[in-house]
């Protein structure tokens, strides 16, 4: 199972787009994010790994991270986007039946 979450300030209603099944257990997330200022300059383009967070915790962590970056640039960012991906979860049995 792979879950990808994409958020951008240019999306309608600023809602995150979720692809795949949202994991119910804490997962390891790989996150890429970009922050740009009105003059077209890319302020932050980075990657980070978040260890064992649920979907709701991930949203809170990214809101805090983007808020901290906004404070660094003087709250003048006009474009923010981030993408988080988690891999893993339950795998279907390949044998097609129960083990005996």
UniProtKB/TrEMBL annotation:
It comes from the Bacteria. This is Uncharacterized protein. It comes from Azotobacter bryophylli.
